[in-house]
Prior knowledge:
Layout lengths: L4 E5 L3 H13 L3 E5 L2 H10 L4 E5 L7 H10 L6 E5 L4 H9 L4 E4 L4 H20 L6 E4 L2 E4 L4 E3 L5 E3 L2 H12 L5 E2 H9 L7 H15 L9 E4 L3 E4 L2
Helix pairs in contact: 2-3, 6-7
Amino acid sequence: MTKPSILIVDDEENLLEALKLNLELEGYEVSTAANGAEALRKVEKEYFDLIILDVMMPEIDGINVCENIRIKGLEMPILMLSAKTNSADRVAGLKKGADDYLTKPFNLEELLLRVRKLIEKNKKLQERPTLEEVYRFGGNQIDFKAQQARNARGEEFPLSKKEAMLLKLLIENRNTVVSREKILQAVWGYQVFPTTRTIDNFILSFRKNFEQDSRDPLFFHSIRGVGYKFTD
Length: 232
């Protein structure tokens, strides 16, 4: 059985070696990088099941490394480490695509637990069957390749690229709440952050087109303060 692979990126040599040793003892295959540029080179050449990424590094900091990884469309989970405790840095890291955030100094057992959970979650996501080009639900039909849809009333209409991407994301995660942050990362990318209202308007449009009663939706749900969910 192949060992899960982890890349640790940190300019503190002692911490780098300590983390490497402890993760190897847990059965992981571990690579290291002492700076952001080295990390990006390694990520381009090899897939990792998890990246542990320090925020405070010279030249290219962890936030920029994270952003670069996501711009390239790479989806491996990222756990950010930072000596800073203010929430602004945490939010910045998560906005750029980090999956989790841990403040230094941290408890080793907590780090190992988060590492295990992130790797297990990523494995489940990879095992999820991909959607077929045409998806049907409740008398509705969506053709993702053609970006066309037909509702239960027989009305046909085109879908914008953003509408098709959001529909695909929600349907692939059906019966699970998808956070606003994940939607922003997957659909709008990392340069533009629309307001919650923008996403709400997309959901309202989906209800109008695909629901029998838009005021009592069966498929498209807004979970206040959390995110959005598609139920089939």
